[in-house]
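Contributing new records

If you add data, match the layout below exactly. Sequence lines come first and carry their own label; structure lines follow with theirs. Keep one chain per record. Anything else will be rejected by the validation script.
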Amino acid sequence: MSLVTAGVAAAMGVLLRGDIGLWLDVFALLLLGTLPALRVVVLAVSWSRTRDFAFAAAAVVLLLLMLLGTILVILLK
């Protein structure tokens, strides 16, 4: 469902010009970027509840790397 929503938002962003098109493109990218991070958060919580701390720690490290990459993209813009 979210993939379809991101696709429609991206297509409308290409067709529409100006600020509305830009906002739709940004929405599509944010939707596609946050869904994998949300999945990693769910996995980290699940692994910590089952006391599988090695995988939970790996998930936290992955989230930190994703956050660092996002910060670098924003700063180097």
